[in-house]
Amino acid sequence: MDKPLLGNVTFVQGARRFLYAVSPKEASFAKLDDVPDYLNEAVPFFLGAIAVEYILAFLTNLPRLRLNDAFSSISAGVFSQLSKIIILSAELVLYLFVYNNFHLVSLPWDSPGTWYLCFIGVDFLYYWFHRAAHEINIMWAAHQVHHSSEDYNLTTALRQSVVQNYTSAIFYMPLALAVPPSIFFVHAQFNMLYQFWIHTEVVRSLGPLEYILNTPSHHRVHHGRNPYCIDKNYGGTLIVWDRMFGTFQAETDEKVAYGLVHPLASWDPIWTQLCHLCHIWKTFWETPGLKDKLSVLLKGPGWTSGKPRLGDPADLPEIEYPIQRYDSSLSYWGNLYVLVHFAVAIVAYQLLIARRMVMSQLHALGVISYFIFTISSIGAIFDNKWYAPYMELFRCLLFLIVDLVLSSQNLDTGVLPTGYIGVIRGIFIGSAFLWISGSLMSSKNKLKIQ
Ligand SMILES: [Zn+2]
Ligand SMILES: [Zn+2]
């Protein structure tokens, strides 16, 4: 029986949504407010699919998910969604503004013609946004976050930039001249949902569908740092745009090495977001002459003075085999500790999403700060930073003090159901004790390049 898993989403519906297998009849809405939050409704399906992929990778001897890398990807995903709690997504704000003030015609929201036109339009404009995100250095500063994982699995899809939303908004503006915002919002979400499942090594080839669709095989090439993979396969749902505009590259026998040409080598979630921006800032001031300074911002990330716009392909380093990846390992208890605290932070985030309408801005900001502090601290533990134990002890004590102040004043933050707060308090008191006694971060935590 196909019973609803979450709200009114059934298993079959949830699965179809990942594949863009929806019809205009079931996914057309008159008003923007009526459009479902497809991305949030997909969360249980994301988690289920990640578990299934893990088992399949185990059975077929493919590289399995690593806790540190998965943590890094999932926290970037949640981080990128946090800003949308305070302000509506930038894409939508700009789209509504342009549509309300400048639309030339208003296509009927309930016509299949409008729906299919918008499907093609969103995918076509996504291609150009994505291409610009790779070919314009200042846009790459945001998009490189998505490419910073050296693994390739479903969690990689969640690794997103916090600010990218603000740059992609501009590319979708031509649609706002005619297509109602509700229909645009449906396709903007489905285009993102489709791109989740193609981040996998489990699916090798889709046969004839490889000609039209962006598939796991095509997207693996897109995530490669091998010279033959650079600046290829920008498509979202369809691969036809790459075939038309000369950026298509099929997967070859050469093993794909994933990640950035200059590896990030950090699990710090804030540094992951900012590293390339800092690099651009430095290069900008070091580069003489206004023309070259502008080129640093607007040409490709591989550009240097006197070189072609996208840099010289001969400058790209060849891949050394066996492929090296940044890695670190914690003790068994260290892993368990990180898992528990990350899970508590994810639950707090989910509750924040569910209750954001009834929660005060101050409390929402409190939960957001707690989340960012938690992922930074876990990143420091994974990176084996000398200050990680102090930072984590401080975080645990701060949580307990804030909790004490709030409960002494009988203030309900509305974040945690009362039944859970006892368990959470227990976890934080136990954790603080562990750090004070020095039982965590044993000498087993060594960084290694794998
Ligand atoms: Zn990309
Ligand atoms: Zn990707």
Automatic annotation (TrEMBL):
Keywords associated with the record: Endoplasmic reticulum, Iron, Lipid metabolism, Membrane, Oxidoreductase, Transmembrane, Transmembrane helix
Ranges for domain Fatty acid hydroxylase: 116-247
Keyword hit for Magnesium: no
The keyword Nucleotide-binding is assigned to this record: no
Class of enzymatic activity (EC top level): oxidoreductase
Signal peptide: none
EC annotation from Swiss-Prot or TrEMBL: 1.14.16.5
Named cofactor requirement(s): Fe cation
Protein name in the entry: Alkylglycerol monooxygenase
Species whose genome carries this gene: Desmophyllum pertusum
